[in-house]
Amino acid sequence: MAEISPKVEEFKERVRSKYPHRQEPNFRIPWYVLVVNMLLIAYILFIYGRKPSDDESGTTLWYGGAEYHLSIIQDTGSTEKIASLTVRNLMNGNNVLTFDSYLASLDFYHGKYPVASEKVGDGISILAFNAGELKTFVVSIPMGTLIKYAKSRNDASARKRRSLLSMEPDYFSYSARLTIHSRVPVTSIFEFKVFGVK
Q1: pLDDT at 42
Q2: DSSP of 73-137, one letter per residue?
Q3: Predicted TM-score (pTM) of this structure
């Protein structure tokens, strides 16, 4: 086998030094970037796969030395919702509250249109409290009526759509009004959402 001439070797070395072999860039992704991406994907899947919000909604009124706190919550073990009205005496001593044939009413409106109404504490015209005492009254929310009405409407403005900026499920919004039927009725208005209406 013929030996390579030293001049040829020298020429090859000069060419190599003049045009060095280019290495391919290393595109390894740092581990923390992968972790952040995986967490972001998990978050998006969680938001889009979750059930409609069951967060409590409600309102609070202070009148006649008493606090009226209404909470609308999911009934345990069912798809129904209940309204729980807690009346707490704020007076240092005894307190007697009087009402016009029933304690309160809970009305649901869409705009100015009344959709459903429920009486809370029907038949109660007087409540007597000791200092710090509270009493609770429960009534079912007419979800069937509210869902039926919401489905009959084609009001796109009343439904919120999910996006990457707003992940809340679609819902139909009602104006709920709690009225305490004391001698001088007092009312509080809050938003009540029916989710999953299409």
Answers
A1: 73
A2: EEPTTSS-EEEEEEEEE-SSS-EEEE-SSEEEEEEEEETTEEEEEEEEEET--EEEE-TT-EEEE
A3: 0.67
